[in-house]
């Protein structure tokens, strides 16, 4: 039995306890485990106020609101109450259950310490995801790791492998040390997946704070685990895990540079094809490629689908997307215009607003090569000032473009979510991803788009270095460096390449050579669908990573 620990798990839109790619990946993974019969259980936290409900003011400012949801109608109570210690404070917690039904039933447990008898500060731990980085976050991660471990014990699970996804649940190792007695024995039970490509992104806490909150665990020598007065949870996870993996081949080199003492493997992420391929496309696949759901390798046979039917299905989805944009904004989009989508978490390294860097050039390209529509969506973290400034920049430049030209239209959609993403990844024509290399650990949104026949236009980083074939299933942005080259992107160089390919390759093909475009749509499904799915990913975890605990 695999115990899959994650700070956020994106299962569906009714459960807003996820913020982005990490959460939706966790949800996709557990759906795949259920389908292919991997005995697994998911552990996460209950956030009663969700992550962030986003509102954009006319001036482009992001306002952050709670996103409460009726968890009692969606989750089932376990009616268990267990003890957990925060410093000298003994508190209670319970858990709520969600079931994913496939060949195997995979249960996901949402831990909840917001009980009436608990201290008010502890009850707040179940308010919001990623709310604070200090002792509040530390306590959330103690609840996740130690609380999750105790819950599984109380429910009688026999766990072979504890899968620490990102380091948020690292404190489960202190319970394992207490039970098994040695680091060597704990390592046989734990694996760690790192998703973060920058040193600053790894959680760390002052050693004195950790010692205070975990003072009942006298078997841990926190001074020995500390580095420069801090406990780094990624290093803690690495020290107590037999296997450590990155989430793409390129990310393995990036992670090895961050953790040079550690041998790091890789399993490139995938997406749950049954969730992300639009039902219009699914109906076509059912007619022409029966069995694709159970065996996504068969998506390589998409050439059996008549081109006119694939295009017709795409145009129906695109029409639904355009209708949504026009309903939510005053952008006046049209169905026959090249529609580019930039939808992801808004933060500095993702350079979400890069395409709007030179409005005069963008205007010139559109007026001479063909009209352009761009849809932006994504939330900035409430404390990410730079991310919020990027949203304001997008909103204000979209207004400026309205006064400059009728050939470029821009819309920003509030409250990016799983359901909105399903329409965006299947309804646009071109999926634009331009993070600063080499900081895209993997990226999964482009995989979802590619499986729907949407063409990728992406920086050569993360998964695209493995899956992208220039001019066949999409286009790259900027130089394609060696795997071990960790140099950063140059904004100017990438922007020139972006504008150049848009003007001289992408727009002319879209407007003048539709047969070539549809051929590339098929190439996209055929090259991306069979490999970049969570079934393949799950089998790789079983064979490469979990093997240590399943033998």
How does this structure look, described?
This protein has 551 residues and is an alpha/beta fold. The protein has 2 domains: 2-53 and 62-270 and 536-550, Rossmann fold (3-Layer(aba) Sandwich); 277-480 and 487-530, 3-Layer(aba) Sandwich (Rossmann fold), CATH 3.40.50.2000. 41% of the residues lie in helices and 18% in strands. The chain is built from 22 helices and 20 strands. Strand 18, helix 17 (445-451) and strand 19 form a beta-alpha-beta unit. Helix 1 (21-36) packs across helix 21. The longest helix is centred in the middle third of the chain and has 22 residues, at 307-328. It is globular, with a radius of gyration of 23 Å. The protein starts with a strand and ends with a helix. The mean pLDDT is 95.
Q: Report the CATH C-level class of the largest domain.
A: Alpha Beta
- Count of runs of 4 or more consecutive helical residues: 22
Looking at the structure, what is the overall shape?
A: globular
Taking Cα atoms only, what radius of gyration do you get, to the nearest Å?
23 Å
Q: N- to C-terminal separation?
A: 12 Å
Question: What is the secondary structure topology, with strand pairs?
Answer:
Elements: E1 2-5, H1 21-36, E2 40-45, E3 53-56, E4 62-65, H2 71-74, E5 76-77, E6 82-86, E7 89-101, E8 105-112, H3 120-123, H4 135-154, E9 161-165, H5 172-180, H6 183-187, E10 190-193, E11 204-206, H7 207-213, H8 222-225, E12 230-232, H9 233-239, E13 243-246, H10 249-258, E14 265-266, H11 273-276, H12 279-288, H13 307-328, E15 338-343, H14 359-369, E16 372-377, H15 385-404, E17 408-413, H16 418-427, E18 430-433, H17 445-451, E19 455-459, H18 464-467, E20 474-477, H19 491-512, H20 514-528, H21 534-545, H22 547-550
Helix pairs in contact: 1-21, 4-5, 13-16, 14-19, 16-17
């Amino acid at each position: 039995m695999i115990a899959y620990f994650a700070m956020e798990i994106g299962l569906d839109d009714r459960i807003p306890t996820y913020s982005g790619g990490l959460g939706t990946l966790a949800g996709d993974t557990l759906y795949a485990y259920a389908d292919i019969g991997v005995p697994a259980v998911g552990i996460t936290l209950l956030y009663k106020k969700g992550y962030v409900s986003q509102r954009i003011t006319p001036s482009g400012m992001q306002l952050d609101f709670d996103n409460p949801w009726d968890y009692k109608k969606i989750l089932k109570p376990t009616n268990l109450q267990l003890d957990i210690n925060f410093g000298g404070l003994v508190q209670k917690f319970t858990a709520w259950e969600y079931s994913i039904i496939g060949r195997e039933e995979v249960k996901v447990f949402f831990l909840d310490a917001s009980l009436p008898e608990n201290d008010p500060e502890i009850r707040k731990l179940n308010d919001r995801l990623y709310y604070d980085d200090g002792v509040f976050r530390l306590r959330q991660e103690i609840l996740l790791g130690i609380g999750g471990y105790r819950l599984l014990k109380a429910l009688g699970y026999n766990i072979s492998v504890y899968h620490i996804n990102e380091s948020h649940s690292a404190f489960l190792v202190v319970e394992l040390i207490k039970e098994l007695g040695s680091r060597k024995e704990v390592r046989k039970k734990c694996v760690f997946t790192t998703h973060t490509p920058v040193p600053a992104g790894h959680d760390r806490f002052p050693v004195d704070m950790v010692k205070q909150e975990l003072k009942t665990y006298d078997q841990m020598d926190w001074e020995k685990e500390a580095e420069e007065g801090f406990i780094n949870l990624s290093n803690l996870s690495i020290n107590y895990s037999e296997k450590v993996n990155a989430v793409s081949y390129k990310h393995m080199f990036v992670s090895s540079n961050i953790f040079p003492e550690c041998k790091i493997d890789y399993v490139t992420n995938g997406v749950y094809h049954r969730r992300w391929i639009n039902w219009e496309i699914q109906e076509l696949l059912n007619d022409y490629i029966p069995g694709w759901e159970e065996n996504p390798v068969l998506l390589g046979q998409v050439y059996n689908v008549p081109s006119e039917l694939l295009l017709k299905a795409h145009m129906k989805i695109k029409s639904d997307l355009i209708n949504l944009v026009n309903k939510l904004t005053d952008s006046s989009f049209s169905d026959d215009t090249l529609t580019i989508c930039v939808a992801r978490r808004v933060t500095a390294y993702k350079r979400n607003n890069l395409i709007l860097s030179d409005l005069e050039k963008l205007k010139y390209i559109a007026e001479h090569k063909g009209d352009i529509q761009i849809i932006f969506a994504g939330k900035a973290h409430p404390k990410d000032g730079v991310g919020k400034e990027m949203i304001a920049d997008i909103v204000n430049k979209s207004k400026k473009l309205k006064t400059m030209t009728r050939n470029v239209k821009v819309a920003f959609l509030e409250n990016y979510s799983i359901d909105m993403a399903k329409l965006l990844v299947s309804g646009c024509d071109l999926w634009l991803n331009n993070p600063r290399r080499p900081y895209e650990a993997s990226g999964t949104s482009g995989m979802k788009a590619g499986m729907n026949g949407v063409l990728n236009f992406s920086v050569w980083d993360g998964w695209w270095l493995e899956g992208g074939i220039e001019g066949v299933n999409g286009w790259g942005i900027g130089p394609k460096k060696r795997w071990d080259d960790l140099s950063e992107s140059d904004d100017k160089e990438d922007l020139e390449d972006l504008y150049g390919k848009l003007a001289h390759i992408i727009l002319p093909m879209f407007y003048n050579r539709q047969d070539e475009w549809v051929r590339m749509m098929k190439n996209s499904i055929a090259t991306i669908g069979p490999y970049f799915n969570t079934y393949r990913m799950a089998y790789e975890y079983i064979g490469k990573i979990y093997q240590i605990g399943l033998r």
